[in-house]
């Protein structure tokens, strides 16, 4: 029974660790090939300078993750983050 409790606690602790732990976030160029993303929590749209910077943002901000909507800038009239 103790083993089961310890196993469950260990599993919970592992699930809360940062998924990028041990892997560095990407280094990106400043080229302009925009990507539109939406915040998974606030549902606000944000234009990222390029795909690499989009991935780097998600890597550095695990509690503010965005999902890619499409290539190109977010459309006018949509709130940008």
Give structural attributes.
81 residues; Kazal_dom; signal; Putative vasotab; 3 strands; flat; 30% helix; alpha+beta; Wheat Germ Agglutinin (Isolectin 2), domain 1; 3-stranded antiparallel sheet
Q: Could you outline the blueprint of secondary structure elements for this entry?
A:
Elements: H1 2-15, E1 35-39, E2 45-48, H2 51-60, E3 66-71
Antiparallel strand pairs: 1-2, 1-3
Signal peptide: 1-19
Keywords: Signal
Domain Kazal-like: 19-76
Q: Quick one: how many beta strands?
A: 3
Percent range for β-strand residues: 15-25%
CATH-derived topology of the domain at 31-81: Wheat Germ Agglutinin (Isolectin 2), domain 1
Helix content class: 25-40%
Shape: flat
Radius of gyration: 17 Å
* Mean of all residue-level pLDDT scores: 81
Q: Specify the structural class.
A: alpha+beta
The order of strands across the largest sheet is 2-1-3
Indicate the CATH class of the domain at 31-81. Alpha Beta
Q: What is the name of the CATH architecture of the domain at 31-81?
A: 2-Layer Sandwich
Query: Runs with pLDDT <50, length 5+?
Result: 13-18
SSE arrangement, N to C:
HEEHE
Number of helices: 2
Largest sheet properties: 3 strands, antiparallel
> First CA to last CA: what distance?
49 Å
Keywords: Signal
Organism: Tabanus bromius
Protein name: Putative vasotab
Domain Kazal-like: 19-76
Structure explained in plain terms:
The protein has 81 residues and is an alpha+beta fold. It has a domain of 51 residues: Wheat Germ Agglutinin (Isolectin 2), domain 1 (2-Layer Sandwich). The protein is 30% helix and 19% strand. The protein has a three-stranded antiparallel beta sheet with strand order 2-1-3. Strand 1 and strand 2 form a beta hairpin. The termini are far apart. About 7% of the residues have low confidence. This is Putative vasotab. It comes from Tabanus bromius (Band-eyed brown horse fly). InterPro entries: Kazal_dom, Kazal_dom_sf.
């Amino acid at each position: 029974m103790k083993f089961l409790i310890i196993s469950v606690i260990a599993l919970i602790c592992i699930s809360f660790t940062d998924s990028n732990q041990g892997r560095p976030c990407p280094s990106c160029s400043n080229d302009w090939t925009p990507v539109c993303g939406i915040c998974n929590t606030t549902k606000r749209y944000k234009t990222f300078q390029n795909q690499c910077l989009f991935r780097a943002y998600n890597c550095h901000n695990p509690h503010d993750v965005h999902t890619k909507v499409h290539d190109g800038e977010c459309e006018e009239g949509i709130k940008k983050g």
